[in-house]
Amino acid sequence: MPKLKVSLLTGRTIDQGKGKEYGKLSKEYWESVTICFLDPEDMKFLEVKENENVKVTTESGSVVMKAVKSARGPHPRIAFIPYGPWASIIMNSKTHGTGMPSLKGVPAEIEPTPKEKVLSLSDLLNKYYKVKHS
Fold this sequence. Notes:
single chain, Barwin-like endoglucanases, alpha/beta, about 130 residues, 5 helices
């Protein structure tokens, strides 16, 4: 399967902000923060369609997310993920003396992963933090 090296950006989105209003355990929030915006040409290279699963890997870890075509661009080899627990798994917590972790320009690799699912918040917390949440 193809793999794509990208520069990963994270940030706020309107949908992520709206999703928080429903609560972080809501379907609306989950759908707003478990997505990875990609350039349409990068999606063609990866041979993935809208809402198919991709694995995003950085030096800090990996998560499975839904691939979404970015409406902005072109921006080849630049991926964007909304802030949330899934982004937190793959962002390095080191602040390099600034007091803020690096949330922009993080080297990452993206690959199709049709057999892996996007974890629910409960499953994500249990897998990475050994926290059971009901």
